[in-house]
Write a structure and sequence with these properties.
There is one protein chain. This protein is mainly α and about 220 residues long. The chain is built from 10 helices and no strands. It has helices spanning about 1-10, 15-20, 25-30, 35-60, 65-75, 80-85, 90-100, 110-125, 130-160, 170-220. The longest helix has about 55 residues, at about 170-220. The relative contact order is 0.16.
Length: about 220
């Protein structure tokens, strides 16, 4: 009977239903208090994405010109000049090569181990906060679902307190208000997930350059002089 009453009222009052326009801000406000943590996660995700992009862009420089200069200095025996060049280049590759140059004269295995240790530290720096972004990608939709459940409970409580027939406006407004948090959570979660995968791919490119440069430097130390 409730559904029949809803359909009848909806047919007799079409202008009341279709004549309303609601802005995005109004929808966000109607979403309730769960929209606040979702909004915080959205702002945090934007900040982390921009910060990581800037950091990775600084690290993702072409090492060919740098390694060409290093080869010239090392083959000439200008170790101090090579160290200075590395210190002037604020990239993970330069810091790894600087550590290797500082170990010149030691066994090759020790040099490789030193470079690998620095490389692990640099990779850790590049991957900083990526786990937080991944957490946001998973947590935002869950918060949205939680807000929806809370909103649905509140809507049914309001319906149970109504006397007589249930107004379709009361029922529909309660449901769409509850669904707002789900939509917001999914939007934040999807965008954070895409941002996370994009950054992971960028980090992998930098890591490949680091590995290639390390091999190139070890080959340089094995060249006859």
């Amino acid at each position: 009977m409730i559904l029949l009453q809803i359909v009848t009222d909806a047919v007799t009052e079409p202008e009341a239903v279709t004549g309303q326009t609601i802005s995005v801000i109004d929808l966000a406000i109607k979403g309730g208090f769960m929209m606040v943590p979702i909004a915080v996660l959205w702002v945090l995700a934007i900040y982390l994405f921009i910060e990581r992009v800037l950091t990775i862009n600084k690290a993702n420089q072409d090492p060919e010109a740098f390694m060409g200069r290093i080869k010239e200095l090392v083959l000439r025996g200008d170790i101090n000049g090579a160290k200075v060049l590395c210190s002037q280049n604020p990239t993970p590759v330069a810091r790894m090569i600087e550590k290797g140059i500082a170990r010149i004269g030691s066994p090759l295995k020790n040099i490789e181990a030193s470079i690998e240790n620095v490389g692990k530290i640099e990779v850790f720096k590049l991957e900083k906060n990526l786990t937080t972004l991944a957490t946001i990608a998973g947590a935002a939709p869950m918060m949205g679902f939680l807000g929806t459940v809370i909103g649905m409970v509140e809507a049914f409580i309001a319906i149970s307190q109504e006397e007589g027939s249930v107004s379709p406006k009361l029922l529909s407004s309660g449901i769409y208000t509850a669904m707002i948090t789900t939509v917001a959570g999914l939007i934040v979660g999807i965008l954070a997930y895409l941002a996370y995968n994009y950054l992971v791919a960028r980090v992998q490119k930098v890591v490949h350059k680091m590995e290639y440069t390390t091999i190139d430097f070890i080959d340089l130390l094995q060249e006859p002089r």
